[in-house]
Every structure is written in C-alpha cells, then in structure tokens.
Design goal:
Layout (H helix, E strand, L loop, with lengths): L10 H9 L13 H19 L12 E7 L3 E11 L2 E10 L6 E7 L8 H4 L9 H7 L3 E5 L14 H11 L3 H18 L3 E11 L1 H12 L3 E7 L22 H4 L2 H6 L6 E6 L10 H11 L6 E6 L10 H11 L1
Parallel strand pairs: 4-5, 4-6, 6-7, 7-8, 8-9
Antiparallel strand pairs: 1-2, 2-3, 3-5
The chain binds zinc ion.
Amino acid sequence: MPPSSEIQFSSAELLDRDFANYKPRLSFGGDTLEDWLNWRNQLLLELREQLGPFPYEAFPLNPQIVSTENHDKCTVHKVIYHSRVDIAIPAYLAIPKGITAKTPAVLCIHGHVPGGKESVISGDGEFGAPYGRDLAEQGVITLSPDNAGMGERAHPSGGCDFLWRRLNYLGYDLTGYRVYDLIRGVDYLQSLPEVDEARIGIAGLSGGCWLGIVHAALDERVQAAVLSGYFTTFAQTSWFGHCICHHPKGVGELCEMPDIAGLIAPRPIFVEWGTADVSRPVHPAFEMAQRIYRAANAYDQITLQEFDAGHLFSGEQSLPWLVQTLSRK
Ligand SMILES: [Zn+2]
C-alpha cells in the first residue's frame, strides 16, 4: 500500500485510466451489408429501450394557430400542438408563399441556445443561419418547435438539469423525451395538406444536431438530414463536460455517437462543422460514420463540409443540398 499522500482519491481520474481501453459493446465492427443489417437491428432495439419508455399510443395533436406574420417570401404561423397528454408544444410553422402543390418539409431543431426556436426563425446570426426561415425562403415548409426545457418550455428554476433530474427519477431519459416530441412534430407536418408526407427532412445545430442524429435514426420517415456542430463522439465531449442532456444514461456502454448516425444509412446526411469549434470535433466521428455508410452500400450518401468559423450553422452548402435532395426524392 503506497503512503496516503500518493493515493489517488478522485474517482473521475481513476475512470480515465479505465477509459483508455474502453470500447462500447455495440460499436460497429463489420464490413459487409449483412454485418450492417444485423448490427442495425440489434442497436436500434437496444437504443429504443435505453431512451424510452415511449408512449404506446399517439395522443391527438389538437393543433391550433395562435398568430400569423407575413414576410416577403413566406408566412410564419405560431402554432401549438400536443405531444402527450397535457404536453403542448409551441412552434413556428413557416410556409413559402406561392406554393401550389404538396411541398417538402423540414423539421428545424434548435440548438442548446437561449430562446430556443427563436434562433432558427429570427436569429441575428450569432449562431449562424436561421435555417427555419432560410429554408422556407428557399421553398420548403419548416416547423421549428421548442425542445423540452428550453425556449417557452423552460422552467423558471432551470432548463435541462432540472428536467433531467425529474425524468431520471421517474425512469425516463431526456434525449428520448425530446426525440419523442420531434417524432410528433413529423406527425404534425404530415397532417398538413400543404406537406408532401414522403419528403420530410431535418436540420439541427449543436444540441439540435445531437437530437437530429437520434431522431433520424429512430424515425424512418426522415428522408434526409443536415447535422451541424455536434457530429462528434461522447468520448470527446460528454466525458469532459457539455450539458448532461447530451448523453443518455449508460449510452456509452451501448455505442458511440457515430454509431447512432450509422443507423440513418442509407438515407443521406450532410454534416457541417466550423474548424474553430474545437470542443466538438467532427473527427474521427465522421470517418467512423463513413465506415458504417460504406458497409451499408451508401458511401456516397454521407457528406462533410468544413468551414472556417466556430460553433454556428453555416447553411451555405447544406441548405441548398437539403432542398435539392428532398425535391428529387
Ligand atoms: Zn442541456
């Protein structure tokens, strides 16, 4: 036994030692389409279990329009719809002017930022392009809801941490809770007569990127995704910090973040990352996901754009890509 002055008492540092040789149980290790299919089925099953429980039956949406603003190229409605019993979701629905046929739609998931959905509709550029508005101006319908614990859904006593602790106590997971709301957002979009229900995409920055990865993995109605600013690994983010809402309980035992992205294959994804955003590195996460896409015979369906900036949504290439991809599907 070494002298007490040499004993390491910090559990966090002792866990670092164990982490050096750690590999999640279901990280993808195959090469072939058959490997990918078998792995995908098992990980999807276990991930749903990890993030749930989810409601068995969809509660009626009971949608209503609260207010309407006219802009040059689109009309922005403030809407409310229900996700679960007593859970109402405030959101912006932006509809391009002049549409005459059923139109593609994009669920725009806001980042881990003050104001929630405001940043994607009326953002001043601090977090980059306001993609909910920009996409509507490029001709697709967008829905930009507040995530639980954020925007109008925040509690005066706190956002993520307050909600995470209560859900954890009850046996729920905050990521799963938020993703279920996003699934209901797609339900709402598909209920609209203006929306082409077979052409649904998503776009998200930061915490919205993380939720978008999980949502697209679990919801096959999502046909294409722009994932910005949080396409990374748990090992490079959650292990060191970032909000507790970005890592479900025990997820590292199961898989790494790019494994979840690999569940989206063969559906196309466009990843974008500002090279100055060093606390959310896209490498090696992108290459890990690329390997999974290759096994799924979808190597050409995963794209990365790096741009010279920090933690923000560029949109320069990704938004036209999303509009074109949804339009030709
Ligand atoms: Zn959070």
